[in-house]
């Protein structure tokens, strides 16, 4: 006996076509939308203060040693870039806060965290 002899695919498909449409899940199971703004506010990010940068060749990089001086693309006294996870969000000056360095914000881009939700 072949396994396919007792299997009636056509009959099963007809029964499916005649079956009533599935009813949607009751509204009680629906969850209220989450406040993504509140959730996003809890995610830790890395804040850095970038002094400047320089484009150099690999040959120049190999020549760097103790006491080497590299010229950066920022002028002395110019505000430094505040970055969050690598994205610039403003500018600041370096200050001393107790025994640590700190930053004084002098310019801040519009941060619309609520618009990310």
Q: Biggest sheet, open or closed, and with what strands and sense? A: 4 strands, antiparallel
- The helix/strand order is HHEHEEE
Helix content: 10-25%
Q: Give the amount of beta strand, in percent.
A: 15-25%
Strands in their spatial order, largest beta sheet: 1-2-3-4
Structural class: alpha+beta
Oligomerization: single chain
Amino-to-carboxy terminus distance: 61 Å
Number of strands: 4
Mean pLDDT: 81
Task: Give the topology.
Layout: H1 9-18, H2 36-41, E1 47-50, H3 58-63, E2 80-84, E3 87-97, E4 100-108
Antiparallel strand pairs: 1-2, 2-3, 3-4
Account of the protein in words:
- The chain has 117 residues and is an alpha+beta fold.
- The protein is 19% helix and 25% strand.
- The chain is built from 3 helices and 4 strands, in the order ααβαβββ.
- The protein has helices at residues 9-18, 36-41, 58-63; strands at residues 47-50, 80-84, 87-97, 100-108.
- β3 and β4 form a beta hairpin.
- It is elongated, with a radius of gyration of 31 Å.
